[in-house]
Amino acid sequence: MYDVAIIGAGPAGASAAIFTAKAGKKTLVVDHDKGMTKKAWFENYYGITEISGPELVETGIKQFQRLGADLVEEEATEIKTNGDGTFTITTSENKQFDAKHVILSTGVALALAEQLGVITKPGTEPRIKTVLQVDEQGRTNIDGVWAAGTAAGVSVHAIITAGDGGKVAINVISELNGERYVDHDIYQPNS
Ligand SMILES: Cc1cc2nc3c(=O)[nH]c(=O)nc-3n(C[C@H](O)[C@H](O)[C@H](O)COP(=O)(O)OP(=O)(O)OC[C@H]3O[C@@H](n4cnc5c(N)ncnc54)[C@H](O)[C@@H]3O)c2cc1C
Questions:
Q1: Protein residue with its CA nearest to atom 11 in ligand 1
Q2: Which CATH architecture has domain 2-177?
Q3: 30 Cβ closer than 6 Å to some ligand 1 atom
Q4: What are the boundaries of each domain within the chain?
């Protein structure tokens, strides 16, 4: 049983996975490599002078794997709600994974969320017609299902979608822990 299953390994999903894995939550990421980020060239990502989309995505994946999250490179074809409040994710190769929480960070692809019954609404960003309805924490209308990044209707910029993924992950971790979570490491100049 995974604590958190994240669908999508673009900036939103990878950032969420970095936080949940680093917090010690058993984390699954499912991604079929069809995101928009690999098409981009970035000169507006804070702290990085310039970077290609492929390098940004590949570094994000390495980062969450290094922290212990599992990656399944397949399409998630179905998410089913179980009677006990958990979820079963089925992939294109018929693998099944159970999770307590799901974060949908699927970019512009909303079919999976719609099949699950997540409520959508019109998007506000250029070329983003429809997004998932979420509250300020990133919760959808289905208990235990959260959304982040482009799928959740935030400004379509990598640093914003990455930040949103981190924000939603912190909210999920806080709910799992039963208290507000913060992840701060301290710089030790002489170590
Ligand atoms: C040509 C172009 C140029 C851009 N230039 C810039 C720029 O200069 N600066 C900037 O800040 N932003 C730019 N952007 C926007 C930026 O790339 C996005 O805002 C941001 O990276 C989106 O991140 P995301 O994680 O929400 O979605 P995505 O990066 O699209 O990731 C979604 C992921 O979900 C996966 N997925 C979806 N459905 C499933 C499923 N059912 N099963 C498994 N996996 C699934 C996809 O494979 C994908 O990897 C550009 C975008 C484009 C297209």
A1: 157
A2: 3-Layer(bba) Sandwich (3.50)
A3: yes
A4: 2-177
